[in-house]
Amino acid sequence: MIRIHKLTIIIDVIGVFCVALAIIAFAYPQLLKPSWQSFLQNFSVEMIGTWISVRLIDLFVSEREKANAVRIRVLRSSRFWLNQLAVFNGYVNYQDILRLQREYEYSASVSGLRGKYLNKSEKDLYDIFNTMLASALDHAKDILDQQEAFRTDCDVFRSELSALDDYSSPLHLNNIPKIRRAIDTLEITLCRKIMVADRTSQLNDVVTKLCDLIAQQSAELGDGLDASRIVGNAPHLLNTREAYVRRFDELQNNFRFLEIDIREETPED
To answer: Which of 50, 118, 131, 230 is disulfide-compatible with 122, CB 3.0–4.6 A?
Structure first.
């Protein structure tokens, strides 16, 4: 890059020199010998034309290289977001989500500048990707909210179970450990990492069976034990996670189309 920059400076110096020479040759021919006038006029014009041509070609090549570099940054930036969302950690704190949202806001602020180097098809796909990305981040935050609420419900329910340990009848002593194990399994299942590569359809049966077990064992215990919040919120949280998986799949498909379009213009990444 330094060598190219020095070469450009040399070409510009020669070009400026030729412009000055042309001014002298055409505006002040009396300063030159008659035998040199025609030669310097023709020579300076030819050199100025060559200089302008070289600079125009250099400008075109530079813009092309800049556009290719922007396309590569668009792909790398999009891959970064896919990697961030592909494995969403249910135990991530809100600071991490806020950090991702701030990074997205910056990315969105420069997307307009990048858009001018993309063709219409690429720009449309990139705009859709950014819109879907913002929605996916909001969805991830919604999952965090629901998971936090679900953990709180589980903790409250465990406290109620602990209160029953001392005065439950011997017939019901086996119910409490079963409910605790079911609650622990349900919490781990719904608040673990969301692996987008995994499909949560198989979890429907697991969550349903766990909820039925909790509801049945709680009803047998009686004593005002209410598992309705856990049993009701668990399927809702699972549906939210499944919706996140579908949203990520749509985002990933959009990226594939964007990558195909950009690679047609920029083969090397």
So the answer is: 118
Local confidence band at 216 (pLDDT 50, 70, 90 cut-offs):
confident
Partnered with residue 195 across adjacent β-strands are 87
- Nearest one of 131, 102, 117, 5 to 72, comparing CA atoms: 117
SS3 211: helix
What span, in angstroms and rounded, lies between the C-alpha atoms of 203 and 243? 14
| Higher local confidence (pLDDT), 263 or 198 | 263
Q: Are 164 and 223 in contact (CB under 8 A)?
A: yes
Contact 269, 140 (CB under 8 A): no
Cα 159 to chain centroid distance, Å, stands at: 40
Q: Give the count of beta carbons closer than 10 Å to the beta carbon of residue 67.
A: 17
Query: What pLDDT does residue 3 have?
Result: 47
| Average pLDDT for the chain | 79
3-state per-residue secondary structure call for the chain? CHHHHHHHHHHHHHHHHHHHHHHHHHHCHHHCCHHHHHHHHHHHHHHHHHHHHHHHHHHHHHHHHHHHHHHHHHHHHHHHHHHHHHEECCCCCHHHHHHHHHHHHHHHHHHHHHHCCCCHHHHHHHHHHHHHHHHHHHHHHHHHHHHHHHHHHHHHHHHHHHHHCCCCCHHHCCHHHHHHHHHHHHHHHHHCCEECCCCCHHHHHHHHHHHHHHHHHHHHHCCCCCCHHHHHHHHHHHHHHHHHHHHHHHHHHHHHHHHHHHHHHCCCC
Q: What is the pTM of this model?
A: 0.66
Q: What is the pLDDT of residue 92?
A: 57
* Cβ neighbour number for residue 160 with a 10 Å cutoff: 16
